[in-house]
Amino acid sequence: MMLPALIVIPLLAALVACLGGRTRANWPRRVTVGALLLDALILAELTRPVPAIGLAPGWLAHFDAPWIPQLGISLRLDMDGLSLLLLWLTLALTLASVAISWREVTAHVGFFHVCLLATTAGIIGVFLATDLFLFFFFWEIMLVPMYFLVAIWGHERRVHAAIKFFLFTQGSGLLMLLAIFALAFVHRQSTGEFTFDYFKLLHTPMSSGTGMLLMLGFFIAFAVKLPVVPFHSWLPDTHTQAPTAGSVLLAGILLKTGAYGLIRFTIPLFPDAAHRFTPIALALGVLGILYGAVLAIGQTDMKRLVAYSSVSHLGFVLLGIFAWNTLALQGAVIQMIAHGISTGALFILVGSVQDRLHTRDLRHLGGLWHGAPRFSAVFLFFAIASLGLPGLGNFVGEFLTLLGTWRVSPPAAVLGAVGLVMAAVYALLLVARALLGPANPQAVMGELSGRHRVTMAAMIVAIVALGVYPQPVIDMASPSLLHLGPLSARAAPLLHLASRQDQP
Amino acid sequence: MQQLLALVPALPLLAAVLLMLAATRIGTNGVRILGVGSVALSALLACRIAVAQIGAGWAVQPFDVTLWHWMRIGDFAPDVTLHLDGLSLVMMLVITVIGFLIHLYASAYLDGDPGYARFFACMNLFVAAMLTLVLANDLLLLYVGWEGVGLCSYLLIGFWYDDPANGRAARKAFIVTRVGDTALISGLFLLATSFGTLSIPSLMQHATTSWPIGTAMPTLAAFLLLGGALGKSAQLPLQTWLVDAMAGPTPVSALIHAATMVTAGVYLIARTHVLFALAPDALLVTGLIGAATLLLSGASALVQTDIKRVLAYSTISQIGYMFLALGVGAWDAAIFHLVTHAFFKALLFLAAGAVILRMHHEQDITRMGGLRTAMPGVFVVFAIGSASLAALPLVTAGFYSKEAILGGAWDSGPSGRLLWCAGVVGAFLTALYIFRLLFIVFLGEQHRHPHGVTGWRIGVPLGVLAILAVVGGGLQTPALLGGIAIMPGILGGVFGSASHEGALALLPLVLASLVPLAGIALAWRWYGGGLASRFETQFTGLLLRGWDFDRAYDRMIVQPLMWLVRVNHHDIVDSFYEGLGKLAQRTHAGLSLSENGRVRWYAGWLAAGSVAALAIAVLS
């Protein structure tokens, strides 16, 4: 019963927040924090070393209830280490979003927190659902409140950005819906059972052409979310226009649902098609890394710069997922978490510049260090984390990803490493243009407020911990990555590079 | 005692964190005590460990300390393990002892700077990172230190961030070295994929057992590591950042860009020398790059007018000597020169800093001159440093280390003889450029009067380093001159007993000793009266600009990239999607036009449509 509670609690809290929000402004904020803490308590109970009895190896919790039994649709939720990690990330970043919006969001406070909680509930559902129909349901649920977050509390071109975001995700989601139905029909043809159960649909026999087509349906939906170049162009607009909390949720968690979908669904459901698709996917990953970086270098809008750096960072995740060996997958998971924290923090910092100076334009900024040395040092820290400095979390992710990729394709790994040079260029340019230079009378901002400071301190600790001792994360993720089954054992001979070491 | 090893890097790290957190609360004195004191403690601890570990015949008892398991993924299990052997002991002593002297000096040099605490936080962080680099038992941990020192270098070059030029120099240093780091990390991927580990001892063991000499794999791996070393140590073709890095405060130049960080590449190759020994091609290239670098930058140093730029080119040139030594397999000679270079180059930078400080931050040597009378102490130590750099025979440390390198080159076949010639020519250039600097700054007419006096916190480090720059040669002398072998004894456990030891022939020794004298003589003739005769040709301009590498890279790499960035500023992919949106809007607008409420138009469209349909039906 604990898994549905994780989803229901934020939804109920949304209702409560909505009802009480008219009179007291702090009511929705407190309700939201309370709901998130309650969820965290449940999650802490689920984070235990020994899984419950009667579950398949690697799985930590399970829930099943009928929904539409005639069509083989059920309310099936399962949690493994990967879901658990991403749930922790979700709760932490949502909490951070509430904290940093405490003073900043003053319009429609009640509805703001309703949207925040509804998005969170949708995301939690996405990370838990193991019924494909239910998964799609949550996939759409998290979309709508996000649309409102951008369209109502966003910046100058918010409506355009919100519509673009909606069209991209909705359009690609449609492809996935078609692929889900087709998969269910293919499954019925071969077994006679009409079901949307993930575990039953695994290993569905199908022709290679069908497999490729269905795989692409899933891939494109997740690729838009991740985002993979050339499906990325909603992201800079949406990130730039979204309110700070929206950007944090988008970059920190929403993008990870794409990566999660690839790991959980695309490759396990269609291993053969995914295997044939590997060279293209690796190329897209490298393209994303380099293309995102080149664009980030050229931006003068701070938020856009960070947004394009996200495109670059998530190229590593795609690379790691399709390299499909333990090292690369672990790297991709760590990169997901580290990126969530470091980019989330950058968006918070950039957001506070915007709140105080009312500009994100790097041409009008500079010299912030004079007035706000602590703020600048924190900013510098996350810029450095984002360029992949060893000892911080992002490096572990990028290193493991590229090390795993090297086994499959050394050129892809080398080109990915070139992306690290470009990351240094854009991160240091951002620092130089925003923080350094002579004192600028138009850009004097004070230090961070209390809630911001606590949030930043927690994120710094998390990034350092992930960098110097990532073992807990690795241990948590490894059972779920192990039972995924080998793909590159077959991929390796094809690419003429037998990998010598362990395979999952 | 062995468990205390971890404290050597941990103390400066802790101090750095404290300085960052509590900068404003502890006052200038607190910063001074914390910043200088942590490195002093580190140095004492390092000396104590050295005393405990050095046994008979100067042999070092090696040991490992595993702090924690970094990560375990299948078989890949890099640990955070510190490894102490002769090589890391030497490096640790150099870093902490010279680091302490420079910290002490800096506490006076930066008096009154608003960024005092920030400066010491970065410096302490640097010392911690550099110690991590040299003590790491695992290439991945080494890489942490490697990038860490790069970060500190970036932060300290751009320390005076008001001036955007300093920021540019800092970025350039970080990015150019990161180009080399890309090669290094690719080398790590290759090694980890081949052997499933990055622990240096087991890598070296695997490499010798499974890779035959001269085959593709060790050669590729060695070249990739070499790429990283070239970037960090500012060798051709990645040398361009070091001269600009002089934008940082002078103590930074002394510690990071002369004594320690820039020699990390030399350390890396020495540390993985087993792998390089399997790759003769990579070794040859290392030697050739070293020779080319020492000649080209030695020539550039001849014409510079900025006192720090002379020293920067000189550093590049001297590291070229170390690469030359590595190229001929004279590992211990390279490390010996690394040590003596740390002594005399730190001394030269600090002495130059003392001059700069008293000349109101003037760095142009054409505006100096005749400082001998006003700053006699600084003149003496500068002269000692110059003599050591120029390898003045018998009495300076630089002489013994340079002889060790040239002797190693002489003994290693025909290609070695070629490198020997380059080294001898370089020695001539070295003597010429450094005595030119000395004569111009301290002799001749006095143009401007220096102010103030040189305090003890500046004077003591200069004195200690001056002594080291003279007696440092006693660590290792050729058989002809006593055959002292402290350095070979300490390093013996790492490199094995050197084969060329004592084989130094008399003729090359004498020849190579006379060359610096000739250089000094020429310098006296040209510049003895101060800034007398300067030769100005077009060639000088080329030398002044460091052979135009910057211009070439700008044209070949920076401008094309920036062109790409500019052209694609609005994301060409996005314009496709936006175009779709525009198309939909236009279509909407077009079709809306047709819906204008006029029945005649509707009837007309109906008729036209019917005619068209009929026409298609009939004609097809």
UniProtKB/TrEMBL annotation, chain A:
GO BP, one annotated term: ATP synthesis coupled electron transport
Family designation: Belongs to the complex I subunit 4 family.
GO cellular component: endomembrane system; membrane
Localization per Swiss-Prot or TrEMBL: Endomembrane system; Membrane
Taxonomy, superkingdom: Bacteria
Membrane spanning stretches: 81-102, 109-128, 134-153, 165-186, 206-224, 245-267, 279-298, 305-327, 333-353, 374-392, 412-436, 456-474
UniProt keyword terms in alphabetical order: Membrane, Transmembrane, Transmembrane helix
Domain NADH:quinone oxidoreductase/Mrp antiporter transmembrane as annotated: residue spans: 129-416
Protein name (database record): NADH-quinone oxidoreductase subunit M
UniProt source species: Lichenicoccus roseus
Membrane topology field: Multi-pass membrane protein
From TrEMBL, chain B:
Membrane topology summary: Multi-pass membrane protein
Keyword terms: Membrane, Transmembrane, Transmembrane helix
InterPro entries according to UniProt: NADHpl_OxRdtase_5_subgr (IPR018393), ND/Mrp_TM (IPR001750), NU5C-like (IPR003945), Proton_antipo_N (IPR001516)
Tree of life domain: Bacteria
Domain NADH-Ubiquinone oxidoreductase (complex I) chain 5 N-terminal: 70-120
Transmembrane segments: 6-26, 33-60, 80-104, 116-135, 141-161, 182-204, 210-231, 252-270, 282-303, 310-328, 334-357, 378-400, 420-443, 455-473, 479-498, 505-527, 601-619
Gene Ontology BP term (one): electron transport coupled proton transport
One cellular component (GO) term of this entry: membrane
Pfam family, any one: Proton_antipo_N
Domain NADH:quinone oxidoreductase/Mrp antiporter transmembrane: 136-430
GO molecular function, one term: NADH dehydrogenase activity
Chief localisation class: membrane
Compartments where located: Endomembrane system; Membrane
NCBIfam families tied to this protein: NDH_I_L, PRK06590.1
Record protein name field: NADH-quinone oxidoreductase subunit L
